[in-house]
Amino acid sequence: MPSRADTIDLARLALTSGEGRRLTDLDVPLDDLELGGERYATPATVAAVLDLSRMSGGGWALRLRFAAPLSGPCMRCLADASPEIAVDAREVHEHGADDPELTSPYVSDLDVLDLAAWARDALALELPRQVLCRPDCAGLCPVCGEDLNAAGVGGTHSHDRPPDPRWAALRELKLD
After folding, report:
1. Coil, helix or strand for 7?
2. In the structure, what pLDDT confidence band is assigned to residue 153 with cuts at 50, 70 and 90?
3. How far apart (Å, rounded) are the C-alpha atoms in residues 142 and 107?
4. pLDDT at position 3, please?
5. Domain positions in the chain
6. What pTM value is reported for the model?
7. What are the start-end ranges of the E strands in the chain?
8. What pLDDT, in 10s, does the model give residues 71-129?
9. Largest CA distance in the chain
10. pLDDT (0 to 100) of residue 155
11. In this structure, are strands 20-29 and 3-4 parallel, antiparallel, or unpaired?
12. What is the C-alpha to C-alpha distance for residues 84 and 131, in angstroms, rounded to an integer?
């Protein structure tokens, strides 16, 4: 049975240099996300796999994998969108490293991994530029707001073209 994992005490695993472990039964909590002013719901927890290994010198190499469904409005047509986002994130943490690329913000000085924060940030980084109901979403008509997906392929939706404002003075002429 999966166990909820907000944090993991890496020191308790007592791994030696070069040794690794895979933790598979983890339920990692997620928070809802806000993107482009819209709220996207996530499940309360997702099943995740965490691979970790002890590096020589006392550091950690970490890999987190999970898939999370989102639900919220499509950014083009405002219909319900529910894509599934696959996450495969990696972190390296070396104690006392001068290079910030080698220190993970998710691992504390006491070797406690903040798994919930890492999962939330990794999910946010994997989000597409636009959350869509389907890849070929046509969006809404910029003139009247009708859903262009309902018009079908090659759609029948159209508007009369507004007159060119440069010719407005000529429309005022009375040629009687």
Report:
1. strand
2. low
3. 48
4. 67
5. 3-126
6. 0.81
7. 3-4, 7-9, 20-29, 33-35, 38-40, 45-54, 60-69, 72-73, 80-81, 84-93, 112-114
8. 999 999 999 999 999 999 999 998 777 787 888 899 988 889 999 999 999 999 999 98
9. 99
10. 63
11. parallel
12. 10
175 has pLDDT over 90: no
Determine the length of the chain.
Answer: 176
Structure-block tokens of residue 154: 């090659």
Question: With contact defined as beta carbons under 8 Å apart, do 68 and 59 qualify?
Answer: no
Rounded to 5 degrees, what are φ and ψ at 102? -100, 5
d(CA 176, CA 157): 38
- Long-range CB pairs of 136-140 (<8 Å, 24+ gap) are 137/74, 137/76, 137/77, 138/76, 138/77, 139/76, 139/77, 140/76, 140/77, 140/78
Q: Which pair of tokens denotes residue 84?
A: 């599934």
**CA-angle at 101, arms to 96 and 107, nearest 5°:** 60
